[in-house]
Amino acid sequence: AAGVIQSPRHLIKEKRETATLKCYPIPRHDTVYWYQQGPGQDPQFLISFYEKMQSDKGSIPDRFSAQQFSDYHSELNMSSLELGDSALYFCASSDRTSGGAYNEQFFGPGTRLTVL
Amino acid sequence: AQTVTQSQPEMSVQEAETVTLSCTYDTSENNYYLFWYKQPPSRQMILVIRQEAYKQQNATENRFSVNFQKAAKSFSLKISDSQLGDTAMYFCAFMSLDGNKLVFGAGTILRVKS
């Protein structure tokens, strides 16, 4: 079965640079979620999109922006990178339209961002 | 806002034995979902088991079962017949009924010893 695809899997950037992380949800999934997991920490919710509209917003820095495109893939844009942005970034997708009250989130393998 | 607390940073268990991981949460909602996720060294997030708060019966998935105590806001995970492949970080997570963000606990590292 198709899974959530994230690219790149690994990314190394310098401070103050920009980075773009991409997420391709499971086919027919309409909702995308982004989470940030720092070293030794639990995943923290950043932002979510449903049918290309922002659905919920968590602790996402103003330096970060995200969007969901017409093909439902999503991109997380990160500017003015800081050392503290080094983390594993997960994307998850769900089928909110058909899922009813419960829509399970399926996680991608994550993108490991290292800021030097 | 909901919070999830896992008070055991690390646990160890001998292969084939049983171990219980603890989780408590705080919410003012009456209906919600609770989950246990496994994160092995590969860092992939794997759903282990889920529980709907409106169901009194505890969820079971093969060797994994939960003890859900709604009034006490407690949601523990029991792993029976522990296997070396169960070695991982385990996260307890909460999700509101509107099904948006997951709120995770700090995690418990489980080591299964041979």
Strand content of chain A: over 45%
Total of DSSP H or I helical runs spanning 4+ residues of chain B: 0
Helix content of chain B: under 10%
Largest interface: A-B, 26 and 20 residues
The Rg value of chain A, from CA coordinates, equals 14 Å
Shape of chain B: globular
Global structural class of chain B: mainly beta
**Helical content band of chain A:** under 10%
Overall average residue pLDDT of chain A: 93
Largest sheet of chain A: 7 strands, mixed
Count helical runs of chain A. Answer: 1
Runs of chain A in which pLDDT lies below 50 for 5 or more consecutive residues are none
Topology, number of strands of chain A:
11
Largest sheet of chain B: 6 strands, mixed
Report the order of strands and helices of chain A.
EEEEEEEEEHEE
> Poorly predicted ranges of chain B (pLDDT <50, ≥5 residues)?
none
Q: Ends of chain B: how far apart?
A: 41 Å
Shape of chain A: globular
Roughly how many Å apart are the termini of chain A? 36 Å
Describe the protein's architecture and organization.
The complex is a heterodimer of chains A (116) and B (114). Helix content of chain A is 3%, strand content 49%. Chain A is built from one helix and eleven strands. The mean pLDDT of chain A is 93. In chain A, strands 2, 4, 5, 6, 9, 10 and 11 form a seven-stranded mixed sheet that branches. Chain A has a four-stranded antiparallel sheet with strand order 1-3-8-7, with no helix packed on it. With 114 residues, chain B is an all-beta fold. Chain B contains no helices and twelve strands. In chain B, strands 2, 5, 6, 10, 11 and 12 form a six-stranded mixed sheet that branches. In chain B, strands 3-9-8-7 form a four-stranded antiparallel sheet, with no helix packed on it. Chain B has a two-stranded antiparallel sheet with strand order 1-4. In chain B, 33% of the residues are buried. The model of chain B has no long low-confidence stretch (mean pLDDT 95). The interface between A and B is medium-sized, with 26 and 20 residues.
